[in-house]
Design a protein that fits this description.
This protein has 26 helices and 10 strands. It is an alpha+beta fold. It folds into 4 domains: 169 residues, Neurolysin, domain 3; 64 residues, no CATH class; 209 residues, Neurolysin, domain 3, CATH 1.10.1370.10; 165 residues, Neurolysin, domain 3, CATH 1.10.1370. The strands form 3 sheets. It has a 6-stranded mixed β-sheet with strand order 1-4-5-6-10-7, with helices on both faces. Strands 2-3 form a two-stranded antiparallel sheet. Strands 8-9 form a two-stranded antiparallel ribbon.
């Protein structure tokens, strides 16, 4: 079923994003907003209606102007847009700092908190007031004027550095290419990947197979290519992106950016009275102390390491049996891992791929959401690039209905292409809120992946790993879109503790393994037949393959991020390479080569929001595994359990503490046991 566009609040018109006017438009909105805020903050009797509501309107207006610009910079990057985007960053940073340090505004919020009216506000309104008062302190409202000024300078510079870090990663990724004209060099690579490489070459007016560092190209080579030299060449290029090593050493080097980011983060935390940036980071998270985070991560490592070492020993033995060598290089791990998996379980990602054509997968994803949360999802077929509704032919727009009403919309941008940032993510385009005229503004989300694009007339065929990525991002999306909270500051993912925000996304991944769900998620591209039981059984048997090794890899990243921020010494900063080397000594089971510069492209913490917070993935995985265990007990499509998850988690957004919401749903404190069980890890 499809339908025409119906939305009382206009979506972005991407054709109207005039790059040469972006800076002037954003500057105008900022200036207008600051002038209005100055007047609002000086009222004698501030209340929700005359202060909080007008402020929300001002923030929303600016967001509507900025959102399409920031999104296009990520998915349709070009020099002119990049320049316009970067020109706005210091202005937006200064705007945020000025609001956060506005003493009159803080006092106005405090007056509402202290008034008789406060007890009459609903829970979301109260939470937004409390969060705002916390955030004023975290923005330096209590600092002396000279320190306030320094805080603003730091925030502005960090914004510039984070953007530059991301640009360097994108440019380094785009710079490396290799044209293969001798097909025998790609022996072992599946036809589906070869077709993509060939399409890359044609797109750049070349003949042959064009390799790039985009993940849909990089991963098949590392996984299947029999040519060890080519695997090594690509691994080296990928592992040294934006660094002082590798084929483009020094050209896009993030070394000084990283050092300055760490230095400024520590100074920022110190200005606000925190011992470290890790302490500052936890001020708005579920975790209560750095020691709690370290203990959590190290306990998981302790319970997983023995099994991870056994898994790696098995892989080394298998590789020696296959190749006769005692040496298992990092660029060989994925290759022999896939061969061992096939030998042990007779199943591969490529064997599953024909059963996961993108159109069938999307309809299956929407059916899962329908059964769990009683929603219906339809594509808006009238949306076009020509009209500015969409920004690229690959992008689709969808409506979500619940109880007969349009409750949300989202864009799907699923395929990798040049000038698009790698990875997968969800971002908010519009927040749910009540408008000044009483109308309901519905939430809108951007959902972005980087899958292999369709080749010729055949639809895109996903791997099972890509299927879980799709469900993960859609989990973030429904958290944002199915909120029933009408206060923007705590609706959807807003105001949710960062170490709980991954709960719905990781939770939804579980249905990618459920036979009852896979029966309608899968359908062979030629016959439409669902995944055969024999293949499903193999896939389920292989589910926990090398799961302890994967656990240790994520713990390596989490401990590196957290300890780097926690132990930073401004008088004698430890080189970042030394920090990661020490963490690897502690937890890594696969030895990284000396040239490996993973941290130089670790965008989550240097260009994203996960600084001193990457542990959130594991923290939230405990919550998601435990939440899912209730479905295991009561039925994976039990409508009452789905409604309970909707009522207590998805619809509540950030209007209450994440720990309270989880306990409301689960009936108890979270347990780590379901996570270890779901990963097939036997606790040490």
């Amino acid at each position: 079923m499809t339908e025409t566009l119906s939305n009382p609040q206009a979506l972005p018109n991407f054709n109207e994003v005039a790059v040469d006017q972006v800076e002037a438009i954003i500057t105008h909105h900022i200036d207008s907003s600051l002038e209005a805020i100055k007047n609002l903050s000086q009222q004698t009797n501030p209340n929700w209606q005359n202060l909080a509501e007008p402020l929300e309107e001002l923030y929303d207006t600016l967001n509507k102007a900025w959102s399409p610009v920031g999104h296009l910079n990520s998915v349709m990057n070009n020099d002119a847009l990049r320049d316009a985007y970067n020109a706005c960053l210091p202005k937006l940073s200064a705007y945020s700092t000025e609001i956060g340090q506005n003493k009159n505004l803080q006092l106005a919020y405090q007056a509402i908190k202290d008034s008789a009216e406060f007890s009459q506000l609903d829970q979301a309104q109260q939470k937004s007031i409390n969060n705002a008062l916390r955030d004023f302190h975290l923005a330096g409202v209590d600092l002396a004027e000279d320190k306030k000024k320094r805080y603003g300078e730091i925030k502005s510079r960090l914004s510039e550095l984070s953007s530059k870090f991301g640009e360097n990663v994108l440019d380094a990724t785009n710079k490396w290419q290799k044209l293969i004209t001798d097909k025998t060099l790609l022996s072992g690579v599946p036809d589906s990947a070869l077709a993509g490489f060939e399409q890359n070459a044609k797109a750049s007016e070349q003949t042959g197979y064009l390799l790039t560092l985009d993940f849909p190209c990089y991963l098949p080579v590392l996984t299947y290519c029999d040519n060890a030299e080519l695997r090594e060449e690509m691994y080296t290029a990928f592992a040294t992106r934006a660094s002082d090593q590798g084929p483009h050493a020094g050209e896009f080097d993030n070394s000084t950016n990283m050092d300055e980011i760490l230095k400024l983060r520590h100074e920022l935390a110190s200005l606000l009275g925190f011992e470290s940036y890790a302490h500052y980071s936890l001020a708005s998270k579920m975790a209560e102390s750095p020691q709690q985070v370290i203990q959590f991560l190290e306990d998981l490592a302790k319970q997983s390491k023995t099994q991870a070492e056994q898994e790696f020993a098995e892989l080394k033995a298998f590789a020696k049996e296959q190749s006769g060598t005692d040496e298992l290089n990092p660029w060989d791990v994925t290759y022999y891992g896939e061969k061992l998996k096939q030998a042990r379980y007779s199943v591969s990602q490529e064997e599953i791929r024909p059963y996961l054509p993108a159109p069938k997968v999307l309809s299956g994803l929407f059916e899962v959401a329908s059964r769990l949360f009683n929603v219906s999802i339809e594509e808006v077929t009238t949306a076009t690039v020509e009209n500015g509704d969409l920004y690229h032919p690959d992008v689709k727009l969808f409506n979500i209905h619940k109880d007969g009403r349009l409750v949300a919309q989202f864009y799907f941008d699923l395929y990798a292409r040049a000038k698009k940032r790698g990875g997968a993510w969800m971002d908010g385009c519009r927040d749910r809120r009540t408008l000044a005229n009483g109308e309901q503004q519905i939430p809108v989300a951007y959902l972005v992946c980087n899958f292999t694009a369709p080749v010729g007339d055949q639809p895109a065929l996903l791997t099972h790993n890509e299927l879980t990525t799709l469900f993960h991002e859609f989990g973030h999306g429904i958290h944002h879109m199915l909120t029933k909270v009408n206060t923007a500051a705590v609706s959807g993912i807003n105001g949710v503790a960062w170490d709980a925000v991954e709960l719905p996304s990781q939770f939804l991944e579980n249905w990618c393994w459920e036979p009852e769900a896979l029966a309608f998620i899968t359908g062979h591209v030629e016959t439409g037949e669902p995944l055969p039981k024999a293949l499903l059984d193999k896939m389920l048997a292989a589910k926990h393959f090398q799961s302890a090794m994967m656990m240790m890899r994520q713990l390596e990243f989490s401990l590196f991020d957290f300890k780097m921020h926690l132990n930073y010494n401004p008088q004698n900063p430890q080189p970042i390479q030394d920090v990661i080397n020490e963490i690897r000594q502690q937890v890594a089971v696969i030895k990284a080569p000396e040239f490996n510069r993973f941290q130089h492209s670790f965008s989550h913490i240097f260009a994203g929001g996960y600084a001193a917070g990457y542990y959130s993935y594991k923290w939230a995985e405990v919550l998601s595994a435990d939440a899912y265990s209730r479905f295991e007990e009561e039925g994976v499509f039990n409508p009452a359990t789905g409604q309970a998850f909707f009522n207590e988690i998805l619809s509540r957004g950030g209007e209450d503490d994440a720990a309270v919401l989880f306990k409301n749903f689960r009936g108890r404190e979270p347990s780590v046991e379901p996570l270890l069980r779901h990963c097939g890890i036997k606790a040490a």
